[in-house]
Design brief:
The complex is a heterodimer of chains A (131) and B (1152).
Chain A (H helix, E strand, L loop, with lengths): L13 E5 L3 H13 L3 E6 L2 H10 L4 E5 L1 E2 L2 E2 L1 H10 L2 E6 L4 H7 L4 E4 L4 H13 L5
Parallel strand pairs in A: 1-2, 1-3, 3-6, 6-7
Antiparallel strand pairs in A: 4-5
Helix pairs in contact in A: 2-3
Chain B lengths: L1 H5 L14 E7 L3 H9 L8 E7 L9 H6 L5 E4 L10 E4 L5 E5 L2 E5 L10 H13 L3 E5 L8 H9 L3 E5 L8 H8 L5 E3 L4 H12 L2 H26 L8 H15 L4 H10 L1 H12 L9 H18 L5 E7 L5 H17 L4 E8 L2 H9 L1 E3 L8 H7 E4 L2 E4 L1 H4 L2 E5 L11 E6 L8 H14 E9 L12 E5 L4 E4 L25 H6 L9 H10 L3 E4 L5 E5 L18 H4 L5 H14 L3 E9 L3 E11 L5 E7 L4 E2 L3 H89 L4 E4 L5 E4 L28 H14 L3 E6 L6 E10 L5 E10 L1 H23 L3 E6 L4 E4 L1 H7 L8 H7 L2 H16 L4 E6 L10 E10 L4 E9 L1 H38 L3 H24 L8 H9 L7 E5 L7 H21 L7 E9 L5 E9 L12 H12 L3 E6 L3 E8 L6
Parallel strand pairs in B: 1-2, 1-7, 2-4, 3-4, 7-8, 8-9, 10-11, 10-16, 11-15, 16-17, 36-37
Antiparallel strand pairs in B: 5-6, 12-14, 13-14, 17-19, 18-19, 20-21, 20-24, 22-23, 23-24, 23-25, 26-27, 26-30, 28-29, 29-30, 31-32, 31-35, 33-34, 34-35, 37-38, 38-40, 39-40
Helix pairs in contact in B: 4-5, 8-9, 8-10, 8-11, 10-11, 12-13, 28-29, 29-30, 29-31, 30-31, 31-32
The chains are: A alpha/beta (131), B alpha/beta (1152).
Protein name (chain A): Response regulator receiver domain-containing protein
Organism (chain A): Roseivivax marinus
InterPro entries (chain A): CheY-like_superfamily, Sig_transdc_resp-reg_receiver
C-alpha cells in the first residue's frame, strides 16, 4: 500500500528545500515560491527533511549538502528511490562526484544564480525521471 | 760393401736395436769443474748414461748432484742403490760408498780398504767392463794419484772405450797422466770434447747391423792385417783367437772413425805407428798382483812351499813366466818365494825368467814402479817387506827385482827355457787359437822338468794334452808335468825365408837389457862352453854377472855360481891386479882395452894370457881371457921362490882384507841405517798418501763449497741490493740484541752508521718516543717466538709507524734474534683522524636532524641501516634486506617504492618518496620520506640515502587542507547568506535607506557572530550568554540590561541563528523599546529544563505604558521565525502596555 501522498497534477508543483543557514533558507524559500512552486520546508536537518518527505511527496528538491546533523545524502537517496529529481546547492567543490551518483540531478554553486536554479527546477519538474 | 757400411743408420727400425752405452766418469780433485764442462755438452736424447765416480769425503754430505743438476740438461741424481741405469741420466756416487754395476743395475758397496787405499774408480770400471763389455766407456778426469788406471785396463780388455782428459786442461793431472801412461787410452781430449768422441765411437756400435757388417769386413781383411803386423813387428798373430782379433781391430777402426776394414788396412800399411798401436792393442790383458788371490794361495801351498823346503842351499829353483806383460804376475811369484824363504829361514837360489813379446810392457816391468792403488792387491804382510813407496807410486824392492830376469821372448817363435820348476802362464792361452795352443803346451812340457808345475789362468786348461800334465789342484789350475819324455819342439814358428829381419829394437830398450841371450841354441851354448875363450861379464864395479868358458885357471871359484862376487876378489894371483886395473880403466874411458903378457898363478900351475876388456853399451864390461901359451904345471920349488914376493903381496892382501872387512862392517851399518831411514821414509810416504787422499777429498769439498759460495754471493748481492733500495725501515738483531743488518731507510728512526753493525740496539739512540717499549717487545718476541704488532711514534709525534716484530729463525727453526719492520702510517693516521672528525660531524648532523642512513647493495638485495634509520623505521628485528623494507611500508606504497628503487638503481634517477609505514595503529600512521642516490663504486654500485620521519609534516598538511576546505565553505556560505539577505531585504524594503540600514546592521551582526567564533577562548566554549552580550554590545549604555541564566553552551551551528535572532530583538528594542525611545529595563534570563530545552525570556519593562505598534510581520519577524525554526524552537510574544515579554524555547545543539 502506497502511503506516499500522490502529487497533485493540477496544483502548483512542490519543491523540498533543505538548508541549515536561516538567511539562505529564507532566500531560497522566497525564490522558489517566486518561481511558482510550493515550498516544503526549508529544513535545516536531515531528520526533519526525511520526516517531511514521508508526509508530502515533493516533485523536486533543492538540497544543501551539509546540514546541521550531517550530509544530505540519506535524503537524496530517498528522493532518488522515489524518482524525484533534485538540485544540489553547495559551497563544496565536489558537485561533479555527487551528480554522478544521482543521474539527472543538477548542481548549483553557492551563492545561487537565480535564473539557473529556475531552469533546473523547471527541467526537473517537467522531464520524466527514471524511478 | 763400402757403401753399405758407410751409411751410419741404414734402416729406420734399426734404431730400436740401439744399445745403451754406460759411460763411467772417474774424477777426484778438480773434477767438479771438468765434469761440469763435460756434461754441459751432453745431449739428453743420446743413448748414453753417465755414472760419476768422484772421490768424496765420507763424512761430508755431497752437493755434487745439486751443483751438476744446474749445469746439464740431463737429469742428475745421487745413487741410493738398486737404480737401473737409463739413458739420459747422470748417476752420482754417494759419499762413503763404492759403486758397482751388475746387469745394468747400480749397487752400493762397502769399502774393504782403509781410507787412502780405496780405489772406487778402478772398482767401478772393472765391474762396468765385465757387465757391459764393449758398451762400456770410461773417462778419467782431473785428480791426483792413479785411481782409474787399472780400471781403464779392464774396460779396454773387454773392448770398451777409454778416454782421458787432456792433462794440460786438468787442474790436477795425476790421474790423467797415470792413465795415459798405460798406453791404452783411445782419446785424449779437453772435457768439452769428450762427449763428442764417445758419440763418434759408438756411432758404429750402436746399430747392430752396421756392427756386424763391419765385423765381417774385418774378418775378410784379418789375414792381411796380421801380415802387415808380422812384417813390421815380427810377431805373427794369425794363430790368435779370431774373435778377439776381430773385436780389437774393430775398436781401432771405430776409434779412427774409419768406415771399414779395407780402409784400415790402407791406414795400417801407411802408418807404422798405427801398427805399433794395434800390436799393443792386441796384447792387452789385465794383470794384477796376486790376481785370483786364492789360486795364488793354493800355488804357494802346493808348489812354492815344497820347492823351497826341498831345495838345497846351492840348488837353483827355476821359474818361467811367459807373457809376463807389465810384470805383476812375475813379481807376485817372486814375492811368494821370497816370503817362503824368509819364513823357512833358508837361502835358496831362485831364478825367475819373465818374458813377453812387447818391449814396452817389459820396460814397465823392469822399472817395477806401480800406481799406489795396486798396493792393495799385495797381501798386507808382503807390502812392507817387498815394496818401497815412491811419490804416489811404489816400487818393488831391489831384492825381489833381482830375482827376475825380463827378456823379450816369444813362446812360439823362440827356443824355450829348460829345466823349469814352475811355469806360470796365466791368461795367455785364452788369446791363442787352437793351433797355437797345441803348439804351446808341448813347449811347456819340454821346458818343465819332471814333477815341475804348470800354473794356468782360471779359464785355461791343458785340454787334450792331459797325457803331458795332470791336475794337482784343478780348481786353482795347478798342473803337474807327467814323466813322459820331452819332445823338443822342432816346429817353432820361425821366420819364413825372404821375410824382413825382426824389427830393430829401439835404442832405449837396448840400454836396459841386462842380460845376454845365452839360450839361443845348443850349438851356440856348445861354442861358448867349449871353444870360446873364458869370458866374464862384469858390472863396472867388477861384480860378475855371467861367465862362460873354462875360467878355473883365472878365477878361484867355479863358474856358474851366480852369487855376486867381484871379479877382482876371486881372480887368481897374477890376474887379480890386471883385472882390477883394466876394469877401472875401462869403466872410466869406455874404450876396448887389452892388457897383454899376463900370467895367472894357480895352485896347479901358471898360464900366460892377454886380458881384453870390452865395455858394453849398458855399462857392463866383457872380460875375455885369451890364453897365450900352454898351461905350465907348477913345480914344487916354485913355491919357495915365490914365497918372499908372495909374503909382501900377502901382507898387502891381508891388510886389504881387513880394511875391506871394516869397510864391509861400515857398509852394513850404513845399510842398516839406510834401511831404517827407508822404513821411516816409507811410513812418511804412506802418511803422505793418506794426507793426499784427504787433500783430494778436501779439494772436492772445496770445489763444491766454492759453487755454493758463488750462489750465496749472488743471493747476498740480491739481499744487499734489496736492503739498499727498499724504502721500508728494517733492522735485524741477533739473540743478544746486537744489530745484524738494517736498511738505509731505518735512518729516520735509528741513525745507524755502517760501524753500528754488531752494536747492541739498546745503545743506539732512537727518535722513537717509547724506544724502551720497543726493546722490551723485541725481547719478548725473541723468547716467545710470537709475532708482535705495535704502533710507535717519534718524540714529537709527527710521524707514526706500524711496527711488526717477527722472530728471526735459523734454518733449524731455532730462534736467533728478531726482525723489526717499520711501516710509516702517519699520513694514513691523519687521514683516519680527518675521516673520524668528518664522520662525527656527519653523525651529529644526522642525529640532530633525526636522519637515518641506509645503503642498498642491489646485487645481493641487502640493506644496511644505521641506528638512526632503524629508530625511524622502528621495525622489530631490524631491516636487512630489500624485502624487509618493502614489508615495512604500507601495502599501498609498496609498488611505488619498489619502482622508485628500481629506477634509482637502473636508470640513475634520484630517489625521493614518502611512504606510510605498515602496522601503525589507525590515526597513528607514521610516514617516512626516503631519499637516495646511486653511488658508483669500483666494482659494484650501491644506492646510498637517508630516510626521516615526516609524520608530523604530513599531519599538519592534512589539517591545513581541511581548514582551507572549511574556510572555503564558510566564505561561500557567507556569500550566500549575504546575497540571500540582500534579496530578502530587497523584497520588504520601502526605501533604499532602510534597505541599506537593515542589510548593514545584519551583516554587522553576522560579522560579530563570526568575530566571536574567531575569538572563542581556546579552552572554553562559547555560551548562550556570550551570544546575548555580543548582540547587545552596540547598545551599551542605552538602558538597564540584566543578563542572567545558567551556562548553556552555544554550538557554532546555533550561533548564527542565535545572533540573528538576538539582533532582531535588540534592533526592535532599540527602535521601539527600552533600548531606544522608551524608558525601562531589559531582563534577559533563561532557564534550562531537565530535558535540555532552554527557555529564554527577553523581557522589556517600560517605565510608562507605551503603545508599540506591531506592524505586519516584516522581514525582521520572518527572520526571527526562521531562526527559531533553525534552533528547533519557537518564539512567543506577550505584549502588554508595561512590558513586552518575548520567549524563545529551543533545543541547544548537543555537539559542537
Amino acid at each position: 500500500m502506497n502511503l506516499k501522498p500522490k502529487s497533485d497534477p493540477t496544483g502548483p508543483r512542490r519543491v523540498l528545500v533543505c538548508e541549515d543557514e536561516p538567511v539562505v533558507a529564507l532566500d531560497l524559500k522566497f525564490l522558489v515560491e517566486g518561481f511558482g512552486y510550493e515550498v516544503i520546508g526549508p529544513y535545516g536537518s536531515v531528520e526533519q527533511a526525511l520526516e517531511a518527505i514521508d508526509a508530502v511527496r515533493p516533485d523536486s528538491a533543492v538540497l544543501d549538502v551539509r546540514l546541521r546533523d550531517g550530509e544530505v545524502f540519506p535524503v537524496a537517496d530517498k528522493l532518488k528511490d522515489l524518482g524525484i529529481g533534485m538540485v544540489f546547492h553547495s559551497g563544496h567543490a565536489y558537485e561533479e562526484e555527487i551528480c554522478a551518483n544521482y543521474p539527472g540531478s543538477a548542481c548549483c554553486q553557492k551563492p545561487i544564480v537565480t535564473w539557473r536554479l529556475e531552469e533546473e527546477l523547471k527541467r526537473l519538474t517537467t522531464e520524466p525521471h527514471p524511478v | 760393401m763400402r757403401d753399405e757400411t758407410k751409411t751410419p743408420r741404414p734402416e729406420a727400425g734399426a734404431e730400436d736395436q740401439q744399445k745403451l752405452c754406460i759411460v763411467g766418469i772417474g774424477a777426484s780433485a778438480g773434477g767438479l769443474e771438468a765434469i761440469r764442462e763435460m756434461l754441459s755438452e751432453a745431449d739428453p736424447e743420446a743413448n748414453l748414461a753417465y755414472v760419476v765416480i768422484q772421490h768424496l769425503d765420507p763424512n761430508h754430505e755431497s752437493l755434487l748432484a745439486e751443483l751438476l743438476g744446474r749445469q746439464t740438461p740431463l737429469s742428475v741424481r745421487q745413487v741410493a742403490g738398486g737404480e737401473s741405469i737409463e739413458a739420459g741420466n747422470v748417476y752420482i756416487i754417494p759419499p762413503g760408498y763404492g759403486l758397482s754395476v751388475r746387469d745394468g743395475v747400480l749397487d752400493l758397496t762397502e769399502f774393504a780398504q782403509p781410507r787412502g787405499l780405496r780405489r772406487p774408480i778402478d772398482d767401478f770400471f772393472e765391474s762396468l767392463a765385465i757387465d757391459q763389455g764393449r758398451f762400456a766407456a770410461c773417462v778419467i778426469l782431473s785428480g791426483t794419484g792413479a785411481d782409474g788406471s787399472a780400471g781403464l785396463r779392464a774396460i779396454k780388455e773387454h773392448g770398451g772405450l777409454c778416454i782421458v782428459q787432456d792433462p794440460q786442461t786438468a787442474k790436477y793431472d795425476g790421474m790423467p797422466t797415470s792413465a795415459q801412461g798405460t798406453g791404452l787410452v783411445d782419446f785424449v781430449r779437453a772435457p768439452d770434447a769428450i762427449i763428442e768422441a764417445i758419440t763418434q765411437f759408438y756411432a758404429h756400435s750402436l746399430v747392430d747391423t752396421v756392427d756386424e757388417k763391419l765385423a765381417r769386413t774385418v774378418e775378410d781383411c784379418l789375414s792381411d792385417i796380421s801380415g802387415v803386423v808380422r812384417n813390421f813387428v815380427g810377431h805373427d798373430f794369425s794363430g790368435y783367437k779370431q774373435s778377439t782379433l776381430v773385436r780389437r781391430i774393430q775398436r781401432r777402426i771405430q776409434v779412427l772413425d774409419l768406415s771399414d776394414a779395407s780402409q784400415y788396412l790402407q791406414h795400417i800399411r801407411s802408418d807404422p805407428e798405427e801398427c805399433e798401436i794395434l800390436f799393443r792393442e792386441l796384447l792387452i790383458n789385465v794383470t794384477r798382483f796376486f790376481r785370483d788371490s786364492e789360486h795364488f794361495a793354493a800355488l804357494r801351498e802346493n808348489t812354492i812351499r815344497p820347492l823351497v823346503r826341498n831345495t838345497g842351499n846351492e840348488d837353483e829353483i827355476r821359474v818361467w813366466v811367459p807373457g809376463c806383460s807389465s810384470g805383476e804376475e812375475a813379481y807376485s811369484i817372486a814375492m811368494m818365494f821370497a816370503d817362503e824363504v824368509r819364513l823357512q829361514r833358508r837361502s835358496a837360489n831362485i831364478q825367475i825368467f819373465a818374458t813377453d813379446i812387447d818391449e814396452q810392457m817389459l820396460r814397465l816391468a823392469r822399472d817395477a814402479v806401480y800406481p799406489q792403488a795396486a798396493l792393495a792387491d799385495i797381501p798386507e804382510g808382503m807390502r812392507d817387506l817387498y815394496t818401497i813407496a815412491r811419490d804416489g807410486k811404489f816400487q818393488i824392492s831391489a831384492k825381489i827385482r833381482d830375482m827376475i830376469r825380463f827378456s823379450v821372448h816369444s813362446i812360439v817363435r823362440d827356443p824355450p827355457f829348460s829345466n823349469i820348476d814352475l811355469l806360470s802362464c796365466r791368461n795367455l792361452l785364452i788369446y791363442f787359437g787352437d793351433q797355437l795352443q797345441a803348439t804351446a803346451l808341448p813347449i811347456f812340457h819340454y821346458s818343465i822338468k819332471p814333477g815341475g808345475t804348470l800354473f794356468l789362468g782360471p779359464s785355461e786348461t791343458v785340454g787334450r794334452y792331459d797325457h803331458l800334465f795332470h791336475a794337482a789342484d784343478a780348481s786353482s789350475r795347478i798342473f803337474q808335468r807327467n814323466n813322459g819324455r820331452p819332445e823338443y819342439p822342432l816346429h817353432l814358428r820361425g821366420r819364413s825365408p825372404g821375410e824382413h829381419a825382426p824389427r830393430p829394437r829401439p835404442e832405449r830398450d837396448q840400454e836396459r837389457s841386462t842380460r845376454v841371450e845365452w839360450n839361443d841354441g845348443s850349438g851356440m851354448q856348445r861354442i861358448l862352453e867349449q871353444y870360446a875363450p873364458p869370458t866374464l861379464l862384469v858390472t863396472s864395479k867388477g861384480e860378475i854377472l855371467k861367465s862362460t868358458g873354462k875360467l878355473g885357471k883365472y878365477l878361484e871359484t867355479s863358474p856358474g855360481q851366480t852369487e855376486r862376487r867381484s871379479a877382482q876378489s876371486i881372480a887368481r894371483p897374477g890376474a887379480r891386479e890386471a883385472v882390477s886395473a883394466i876394469i877401472r880403466q875401462v869403466s872410466a874411458r869406455t874404450k876396448r882395452t887389452i892388457s897383454r903378457d899376463l900370467t895367472a898363478q894357480s895352485e896347479f900351475g901358471r898360464q900366460a894370457f892377454d886380458l881384453i876388456a870390452d865395455p858394453l853399451p849398458d855399462g857392463t864390461i866383457l872380460l875375455v881371457f885369451r890364453d897365450r901359451d900352454r898351461f905350465e904345471a907348477t913345480e914344487d920349488d916354485d913355491i919357495d921362490e915365490l914365497a918372499p914376493s908372495d909374503s909382501h903381496v900377502q901382507s898387502l892382501e891381508d891388510e886389504l882384507r881387513s880394511t875391506r872387512q871394516r869397510l864391509h862392517t861400515t857398509v852394513e851399518e850404513l845399510e842398516t841405517a839406510n834401511e831404517e831411514l827407508k822404513s821411516s821414509n816409507e811410513e812418511m810416504m804412506s802418511m803422505n798418501e793418506e794426507l793426499q787422499s784427504t787433500n783430494e777429498e778436501l779439494s772436492t769439498v772445496n770445489d763444491e763449497l766454492k759453487g755454493k759460495v758463488d750462489e750465496l754471493s749472488v743471493a747476498n748481492a740480491d739481499l744487499s741490493n734489496f736492503f739498499a733500495s727498499t724504502a721500508l725501515p728494517l733492522v735485524v738483531v741477533d739473540a743478544d740484541m746486537a744489530i745484524r743488518n738494517f736498511t738505509d731507510a731505518i735512518q729516520s728512526i735509528y741513525p745507524f752508521r755502517g760501524t753500528d753493525r754488531g752494536r747492541p740496539l739498546t745503545e743506539v739512540t732512537s727518535t722513537l718516543r717509547r724506544n724502551d717499549e720497543v726493546l722490551e717487545a723485541t725481547q719478548e718476541v725473541m723468547s716467545s717466538g710470537d709475532v708482535r704488532h705495535m704502533r710507535v711514534s717519534d718524540r714529537s709525534e709527527d710521524r707514526t709507524w706500524s711496527l711488526v716484530i717477527t722472530p728471526y729463525r735459523k734454518r733449524d727453526g731455532q730462534l736467533d734474534g728478531a726482525t723489526l719492520v717499520f711501516s710509516e702510517v702517519t699520513s694514513a693516521l691523519r687521514l683516519e683522524e680527518a675521516l673520524r672528525h668528518e664522520g662525527e660531524r656527519l653523525r651529529l648532523a644526522l642525529d640532530v636532524s633525526e636522519l637515518g642512513v641506509w645503503e642498498l647493495a642491489p646485487e645481493t638485495r641487502t640493506l644496511r641501516l644505521d641506528d638512526g634509520a632503524d629508530a625511524v623505521m622502528g621495525i622489530e628485528g631490524g631491516i636487512d634486506t630489500l624485502d624487509d623494507l618493502l614489508n615495512a611500508v604500507n601495502e599501498a606504497d609498496r609498488a611505488a617504492l619498489s619502482q622508485a628503487l628500481h629506477d634509482v638503481e637502473k636508470e640513475d634517477k634520484p630517489l625521493d618518496i614518502t611512504c606510510t609505514l605498515a602496522g601503525g595503529a589507525a590515526g597513528r600512521m607514521r610516514s617516512v620520506q626516503i631519499v637516495g642516490r646511486k653511488v658508483e663504486g669500483e666494482r659494484t654500485s650501491r644506492v646510498l640515502g637517508v630516510l626521516f620521519d615526516v609524520t608530523e609534516e604530513q599531519e599538519a598538511k592534512r589539517v591545513r587542507e581541511m581548514m582551507l576546505r572549511e574556510m572555503n565553505h564558510r566564505v561561500k556560505n557567507m556569500f550566500s547568506i549575504i546575497s540571500g539577505m540582500v534579496r530578502i531585504a530587497g523584497r520588504k524594503a520601502d526605501n533604499v535607506e532602510d534597505l541599506v540600514e537593515g542589510i548593514v546592521s545584519r551583516v554587522n551582526a553576522l560579522a560579530r557572530s563570526h568575530h566571536m567564533t574567531q575569538r572563542a577562548p581556546s579552552s572554553g566554549q562559547l555560551t548562550l550568554e556570550d551570544a546575548i552580550r555580543a548582540a547587545l554590545e552596540p547598545y551599551e549604555g542605552k538602558g538597564d540590561a540584566k543578563i542572567e541564566g545558567p551556562e548553556v553552551p552555544a554550538g557554532s551551528e546555533d550561533l548564527t541563528a542565535l545572533s540573528l535572532l538576538m539582533h532582531e530583538w535588540a534592533t526592535n528594542a532599540a527602535k521601539y523599546g527600552v533600548l531606544g525611545p522608551a524608558d525601562g529595563r531589559l531582563d534577559v534570563t533563561w532557564t534550562q529544563e531537565d530535558d535540555g530545552r532552554v527557555k529564554l525570556t527577553w523581557n522589556e519593562t517600560y517605565a510608562e505604558p507605551i503603545e508599540r505598534s506591531e506592524g505586519p510581520s516584516g522581514f525582521g519577524s520572518t527572520l526571527v521565525e526562521l531562526s527559531a525554526a533553525q534552533l528547533r524552537g519557537s518564539v512567543t510574544v506577550d505584549a502588554q502596555p508595561h512590558e513586552r515579554r518575548t520567549t524563545l524555547t529551543y533545543e541547544p545543539q548537543a555537539e559542537i
